[in-house]
């Protein structure tokens, strides 16, 4: 699979390229950046290590690489200032992003290409990409809360001195201030997290707060996030490249999942070669669902502000288009699963509903 990274000279883009190089799964990595020297430098540095890793083609290119890319990633953008919210970035980043979308379109995109948006505010920019590129919505993915979820798991593991890879915990909603921790499903080693010695509501609150502030914490200390976001991106790219059908907390256009519509937001999403292959509506605690819906409202308000400022962008609303491939579980079927027991009397046995991208609305 050939991947191009627009913004590949920058911190996020180059860390993503390095993570993909170490992964050794994709066959070609093309870096594109306004800063041509930086882009060539990053490429050269990657190339120097190639003989130690895998036989991949790594190039510094321009938009002429786009028509042959199977996955086009956008990491170009301006970074947050330490005290700036991600949504404040919007005014500075939207114009730049629309310009990049125009160049991608002009270059010509493969019919089956997947677009992965990383630049912030990622959910809003994913919405614009879905509207502007003319690709089916299932082919446009935002990194969403993938990095937040990774940070969340690592910080929980560190606090409880558990192995990081044995903690499963997810954050859904906006990649931003209204993100939602899904405590109802948090586990370590397959056991409910809230049953672990030393676990209590204060620990939980403090860990979520630290996770939410992690981006700003890293920006303050080293200027911007790189390694963890690179690995988070790799997870998504490999899910596509290897058609893994992994369930990841990524952002895409929703049309009824948890009764949310016309926003790009992170819900548990089956990711495979077709992009978004299904959006899963898993029964969560009621307070988690309402926090998720509130997050969608926050995002919708921002999208409205953006469209008001960019009437040209408003002319093409995104179209929700069904997934081609069926979800791994039969659609329309309600499946009993066991999740972590609820901390609010709401937990215990839960249901999974596959709402897919083939229609909206709750099913079950
Ligand atoms: N979604 C996430 O989880 C997540 C995490 C971290 C950072 N980000 C976002 O990623 C973006 C990049 O962050 P960074 O730290 O890599 O910034 P950076 O400044 O290091 O890199 C950005 C790169 O984009 C390039 N660029 C700017 N305009 C361009 C254009 N029109 N075409 C091609 N390249 C262009 C710049 O030359 C620069 O090399 C920011 O918007 C940041 O907020 C997202």
Automatic annotation (TrEMBL):
It comes from the Bacteria. Pfam families: Ldh_1_C, Ldh_1_N. GO terms for biological process: lactate metabolic process. InterPro entries: L-lactate/malate_DH, L-lactate_DH_AS, Lactate/malate_DH_C, Lactate/malate_DH_N, Lactate_DH/Glyco_Ohase_4_C, NAD(P)-bd_dom_sf. NAD(+) binds at residues 7-13, 33, 93, 118-120. Substrate binds at residues 80, 86, 120, 151. The active site is at residue 175. PANTHER family: L-2-HYDROXYCARBOXYLATE DEHYDROGENASE (NAD(P)(+)), L-LACTATE DEHYDROGENASE. This is Malate/lactate dehydrogenase. The lineage of its organism: Bacteria, Pseudomonadati, Planctomycetota, Planctomycetia, Isosphaerales.
């Amino acid at each position: 699979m050939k991947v191009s990274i627009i913004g590949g000279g920058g911190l996020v883009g180059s860390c993503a390229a390095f993570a993909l190089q170490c992964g050794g799964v994709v066959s070609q990595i093309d870096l594109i950046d306004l800063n041509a020297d930086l882009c060539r430098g990053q490429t050269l540095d990657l190339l120097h290590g190639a003989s130690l890793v895998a036989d991949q083609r790594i190039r510094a290119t321009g938009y002429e690489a786009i028509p042959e890319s199977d996955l086009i990633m956008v990491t170009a953008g301006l970074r947050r200032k330490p005290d700036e919210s991600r949504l404040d970035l919007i005014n500075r980043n939207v114009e730049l992003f629309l310009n990049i979308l125009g160049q991608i379109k002009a270059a010509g995109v493969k019919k089956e290409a997947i677009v992965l948006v990383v630049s912030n505010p990622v959910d809003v920019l994913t919405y614009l990409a879905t509207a502007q590129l003319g690709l089916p919505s299932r082919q446009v993915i935002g990194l969403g809360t993938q990095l937040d979820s990774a940070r969340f798991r690592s910080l929980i593991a560190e606090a409880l001195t558990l192995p990081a890879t044995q903690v499963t915990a997810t954050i859904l909603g906006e990649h931003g201030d209204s993100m939602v921790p899904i405590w109802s499903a948090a586990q370590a080693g397959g056991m409910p997290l809230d049953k672990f010695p030393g676990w209590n509501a204060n620990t939980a609150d403090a860990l979520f707060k630290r996770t939410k502030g992690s981006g700003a914490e890293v920006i303050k200390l080293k200027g911007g996030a790189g390694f963890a976001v690179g690995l988070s991106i790799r997870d998504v790219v490999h899910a596509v490249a290897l058609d893994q059908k992994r369930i990841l907390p990524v952002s895409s256009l929703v049309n009824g999942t948890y009764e949310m519509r016309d926003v790009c937001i992170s819900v548990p999403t089956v990711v495979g070669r077709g992009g978004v292959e299904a959006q899963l509506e898993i029964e969560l605690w009621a307070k988690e669902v309402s926090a998720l819906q509130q997050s969608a409202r926050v995002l919708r308000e921002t999208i409205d502000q953006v469209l008001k400022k960019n009437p040209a962008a408003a002319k093409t609303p995104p179209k929700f288009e069904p997934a081609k491939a069926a979800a791994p579980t039969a659609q329309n079927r309600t499946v009993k699963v066991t999740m972590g027991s609820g901390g609010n009397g709401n937990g215990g046995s839960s249901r999974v509903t596959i709402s897919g991208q083939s229609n909206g609305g709750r099913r079950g």
